[in-house]
């Protein structure tokens, strides 16, 4: 049965006197739907022969550091998917703490058996080949996981120093960085 059909049946079975508008009810409904969506993503990833994980940390509105964990995979029809798996609070910003959180999300959702690549920003805590997240993830899963510097972060690093330069100059710098990255 499709999720839309399940939702329709669930909504139709709710007595009219029930509104479920308290913050507790609304949060519970959001949590349930999050779990359903997450399970659906995990099922699709399970049907792929391999996947990539993307992670980025950010400070939320409550001034707490979170890590967003996304997966990228391709299905049998070569349709590419990129989905957010989870956003979780970080206890700290060390490579060990970030990699532990990242691996926890993966193990709780899609596993690491078919993980072939990881992508994140170029900060040494993430990209360090000895003690960065990329190295710790590879070590934890027991094999080399390809590391790719996130293209959005590459673009930001290229465009930021340009200030008020023309779009054409920014584009040419970004293309040069792309060519250099491909050559390495």
Describe the structure.
This protein has a 5-stranded mixed beta sheet with strand order 3-2-1-4-5. The protein is built from 7 helices and 5 strands. The model has no long low-confidence stretch (mean pLDDT 81). It is an alpha/beta fold. The chain folds into 2 domains: 147 residues, no CATH class; 35 residues, no CATH class. The N and C termini lie far apart (48 Å). Helices cover 48% and strands 21% of the residues.
Radius of gyration: 20 Å
Tell me roughly what share of residues is in helical segments.
40-55%
User: If helices are DSSP runs of H or I spanning 4 or more residues, what is the number of helices?
Assistant: 7
Shape: globular
Give the domain tally.
2
Average pLDDT confidence is 81
Give the CA-CA distance, first to last residue.
48 Å
What strand line-up does the widest sheet have?
Answer: 3-2-1-4-5
Instruction: List low-confidence stretches.
Output: none
| Strand-pairing-aware structural class | alpha/beta
Strand content: 15-25%
What is the structure about, briefly put?
With 184 residues, this protein is α/β, with parallel strands linked by helices.
SSE diagram, text form:
Elements: H1 3-12, H2 23-46, E1 51-59, E2 65-74, E3 80-89, H3 95-109, E4 115-120, H4 124-127, H5 133-141, E5 146-149, H6 151-159, H7 167-183
Parallel strand pairs: 1-4, 4-5
Antiparallel strand pairs: 1-2, 2-3
Helix pairs in contact: 3-5, 6-7
